[in-house]
């Protein structure tokens, strides 16, 4: 869909075709980004999962640098659209080389699951498995046979607030992230200079975080990042046309982008660690989708701030602080084992097993007599 949208924009003959093409670019591209994180969480384990999650975003920032540079040198919009369409088409070929998630295939087609696992085993030089090996754990079979939905995230008490707080966290991230880009022309410097500064801080954030992600506390650093962004936004309460003031606006916008990108990278990992395996991918996709309302709201928020003669950066900072407060009840997940089951289900199964054991103990003496 992304490639189709890119091609439609490239060969557009009117504004309507451009609008439809941009729709497909967003409709296909944004879910693809989120599904990649679910894909990584299902494929990778341990520290490599954390490093890989942030590593993807390093290249996201490099791509942002690339599009700003291309826009600077390619002034004709159609050729710029071509430069976007080419890599999106080539990526379709690259995705054919990636193995489907065995965890997903286990719920759909066990023969394909075994085939993929053995292809991975061949590359890793490990032992092959047979289809019977997948059914040796009845508990695992029970977990994967059920299909979860958003209703389960709202039904279970242990998931409900975590889901709500996660959506609001991503809302604050995206309203600030996209809002900074949206108001970049109000920061006093020219468009390209401002966006190069912002892109540089974004790349620096992801690259730095990738080195320390295995040691950083998730909850503490996300909350701290939100509060610092809120504090920095107070600078934009003041207004001046002095060149030094304007330069500091650009630098502060870059630093805010640095922090919000670090929070974003930590947020993806934090969400994947908060939820049990049976709903992890579902929760990650829905939270990211819910947070996308922030990317829509920032445009309306910016217009509202302009009508009130308040800089939009101030509003972004306030939202970050308010959403940070919602994260305090959540648990820290650094160096904690990933949960496999929903807490209520785990308690129910444990109670059932205790009941069975008690029944066996009661009936055993009767059999003896």
From TrEMBL:
InterPro entries: MFS_dom (IPR020846), MFS_sugar_transport-like (IPR005828). It is a multi-pass membrane protein. Keywords: Membrane, Transmembrane, Transmembrane helix. One of its GO terms (molecular function) is transmembrane transporter activity. It holds the Pfam family Sugar_tr. This is Major facilitator superfamily (MFS) profile domain-containing protein. Residues 1-335 form the Major facilitator superfamily (MFS) profile domain. It comes from Paramecium pentaurelia. PROSITE patterns: MFS. GO terms for cellular component: membrane. It is found in: Membrane. The chain crosses the membrane at residues 12-33, 54-74, 80-99, 161-180, 192-213, 220-238, 250-270, 282-301, 313-330.
């Amino acid at each position: 869909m992304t490639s189709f949208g890119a091609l439609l924009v490239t060969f557009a003959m009117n504004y309507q075709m451009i609008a439809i093409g941009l729709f497909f670019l967003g409709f296909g591209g944004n879910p693809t980004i989120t599904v990649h994180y679910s894909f990584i969480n299902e494929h990778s384990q341990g520290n490599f999962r954390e490093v890989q999650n942030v590593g993807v975003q390093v290249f996201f920032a490099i791509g942002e640098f690339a599009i700003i540079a291309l826009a600077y040198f390619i002034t004709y919009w159609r050729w710029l659209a071509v430069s976007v369409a080419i890599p999106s088409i080539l990526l379709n070929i690259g995705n054919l080389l990636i193995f489907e998630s065995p965890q997903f295939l286990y719920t759909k087609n066990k023969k394909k699951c075994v085939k993929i696992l053995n292809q991975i085993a061949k590359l890793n030089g490990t032992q092959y498995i047979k289809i019977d090996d997948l059914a040796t754990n009845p508990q695992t079979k029970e977990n994967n046979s059920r299909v979860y939905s958003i209703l389960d995230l709202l039904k279970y008490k242990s998931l409900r607030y975590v889901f709500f707080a996660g959506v609001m966290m991503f809302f604050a991230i995206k309203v600030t992230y996209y809002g900074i880009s949206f108001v970049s022309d109000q920061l006093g410097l020219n468009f390209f200079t401002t966006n190069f500064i912002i892109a540089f801080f974004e790349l620096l954030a992801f690259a730095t975080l990738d080195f320390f992600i295995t040691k950083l506390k998730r909850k503490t650093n996300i909350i701290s990042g939100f509060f610092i962004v809120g504090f920095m936004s107070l600078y934009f309460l003041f207004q001046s046309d002095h060149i030094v003031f304007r330069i500091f606006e650009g630098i502060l916008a870059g630093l805010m982008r640095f922090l919000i990108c670090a929070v974003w990278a930590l947020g993806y990992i934090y969400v994947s660690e908060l939820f049990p395996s049976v709903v992890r991918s579902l929760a990650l996709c829905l939270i990211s989708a819910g947070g996308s309302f922030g990317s829509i709201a920032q445009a309306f928020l910016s217009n509202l701030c302009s009508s009130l003669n308040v800089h939009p950066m101030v509003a972004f900072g306030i939202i970050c602080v308010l959403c940070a407060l919602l994260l305090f009840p959540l648990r820290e997940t650094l160096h904690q084992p990933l949960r496999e089951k929903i807490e209520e289900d785990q308690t129910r199964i444990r109670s059932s097993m205790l009941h069975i054991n008690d029944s066996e103990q009661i009936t055993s003496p009767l059999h003896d007599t």
